[in-house]
Amino acid sequence: MDLSTYWQFEPQEVLTALQTTADGLSSEEAIKRILAGTSKKKERSQLAKDIILFFSQFKSPLTLLLVAAVILSIFLRETSDVFIILFILLATGIMSFIQELHAGKAVEKLRSIIRTKVKVVREKNPVDVFTEEIAPGDILLFAAGDMIPADCLLIEGKDLHANEATLTGETYPAEKEVGKIAADTGMSKRSNVLFEGTSIVSGTGKAVAVFTGKDTVFGKISASLSGPVEETAFERGIRKFGYLLMQITIVLAVAILAINIYYGRPLIDSLLFGLALAVGMAPELLPAIMTIAMSAGARRMATQKVIVKKLSSIQNLGEINLFCSDKTGTLTEGVLKISSIVDIDGKDNATVKQLAYLNAKFETGFSNPMDDALRGMENVSSDNYIKTDEIPYDFIRKRLSVCLQKDGKHQLITKGAGVVGRWICSTSCR
């Protein structure tokens, strides 16, 4: 069975394909599957990664040209030039290295935040394990507030809703239910699937882990971000400029050497003159100026909570004239802000605004972005209002009502699905 579209199968079919049951895996079998899915390739030590990162700062043609200038200066015994160019080289490389090292550590800290424990059925008993200890075929138990550690197929569910804003961009929690759906169903419509990196908003559920780690949707996104970094337009331009400068330097040095020899100048003097010319044409300060300018940009972006992992990417960002984005499929905060509140005629209405605020202020159902935004509105107040009763939201009535009292009068404020769209209304009550 091809599990790449596992949502099109019944839960029992998937359990059979994964060689597991609703009672869960044994601890030994889970460990065996985790080890089987672990890459055999040895990870480099952190020291080795840092050394590689440091030396990668000196790979551009301009930097290599300065390295050649240092070697030639040593050969020509130009001590002052050696120290000046070497200082510029090291200062530029260390600045870039420190920036990228700190950015990398910040990213690692962000990744460590999601290291949480989840409840798993092992040998018929629920136990708590770390998310990285989940194996395909594990049976997971979920409740409100739990993070999803793997791409799962729902086996059991009761009033289950998941926040999938990080993957789909949808603000409202997605309702989840047991069943099978068409293989070509889009990600945001897979109502029987729980995705890694999302969280449970309300309800309870039981699911089987189908894909873990890099095989999950979230894992594939992470892999695409951590893969080999493509050369930026700025880097391409600097590389081409560096090669052009090297070619010009070599041609001029060789030409001047040939002319001096042609006119009978001493060979050693002519060679030294050509080498001195090559050293003089090397733009010693250019790499330092670029690094300082981009580091300043990275610091300014850091104040806005933006991590710059690669300095040269700032130039690409600065070249953007028009940025178009659709919320679907992007990483979003899932936070709403109220722009305006209008009545049935589409006009701003202070009464409707007050009713919406009161309903959100006094309702006690599960938190959602819309009510959070309504509660944060200005120029509205709940003073002197007393809550006397509430009819909570349910998926049959699809409405939520609160009964309030003010100055001896009762008022029932209802919001939810009406005949057309969504509405908020108020009526007297006792």
N- to C-terminal distance: 60 Å
Structural class: alpha+beta
The gross shape turns out to be elongated
Question: Which band does the percent of strand residues land in?
Answer: 15-25%
H/I helix tally: 13
**What would you give as the CATH superfamily of the largest domain?**
Calcium-transporting ATPase, transmembrane domain
**What is the CATH topology assignment of the largest domain?**
Calcium-transporting ATPase, transmembrane domain
Number of strands: 11
In terms of per-residue confidence, which ranges show pLDDT below 50 for 5 or more consecutive residues?
A: none
The main sheet comes to: 7 strands, antiparallel
Helix-residue proportion: 40-55%
- Please state the CA-atom Rg, rounded to the nearest Å: 32 Å
The total tally of domains equals 3
The sequence of SSEs as H and E is HHHHHEEEEHEEEHHHHHHHEEEE
**What is the CATH domain class of the largest domain?**
Mainly Alpha
Average of the residue pLDDT scores: 79
CATH architecture of the largest domain, please? Up-down Bundle
Write up this protein.
- The protein is an alpha+beta fold and 430 residues long.
- The protein has 3 domains: 113 residues, Calcium-transporting ATPase, cytoplasmic transduction domain A; 156 residues, Calcium-transporting ATPase, transmembrane domain (Up-down Bundle), CATH 1.20.1110.10; 79 residues, 3-Layer(aba) Sandwich (Calcium-transporting ATPase, cytoplasmic domain N).
- Strands 1, 2, 3, 4, 5, 6 and 7 form a 7-stranded antiparallel beta sheet that branches. It has a 4-stranded antiparallel beta sheet with strand order 8-9-10-11, with helices on one face.
- A hairpin with a 2-residue loop joins strand 1 and strand 2.
- Helix 4 runs antiparallel to helix 5, helix 4 runs antiparallel to helix 9 and helix 12 crosses helix 13.
- It is elongated, with a radius of gyration of 32 Å.
